[in-house]
Amino acid sequence: MTKPDKSKLKYYCPRCGSTKIIDMGEKFRCPRCKRNFFKKYTRQFRGEDGLTSEDIENLTDSLTNNADLQKWDNFIEEERNDLVNKNDKNNK
User: What is the pLDDT of residues 31-58, one digit of tens each?
Assistant: First the structure.
């Protein structure tokens, strides 16, 4: 098995997926989410396997505009409030 050509390997942010990173030697910084990551603990991908800018835009749009997540948050908040109210009534 041949090792991949390191010149074609690129790091990406494990938190947001951005490939626009700032190389700092053993670490890199993601300017988008403002976090530092150690290279040895993160994955790499081959440059030719990268997503197109259109793919990335579609992905981020689907994540940021996901109404289902808001519905889920609302449901959890309602359930939490119901449990607190029941607990308050039982303690009186």
Answer: 998 888 888 877 665 554 555 566 667 6
Short-list 18, 14, 4, 16, CA closest to 46: 4
Q: Show me where the domains of the chain are located.
A: 1-50, 52-92
Q: Which fold has domain 1-50?
A: N-terminal domain of TfIIb (2.20.25)
The closest alpha carbon to 50, from 14, 23, 11, belongs to 11
- Under a CB-based contact definition with an 8 Å cutoff, are residues 13 and 30 in contact? yes
- The model's pTM is 0.40
Q: Are 31 and 19 in contact (CB under 8 A)?
A: no
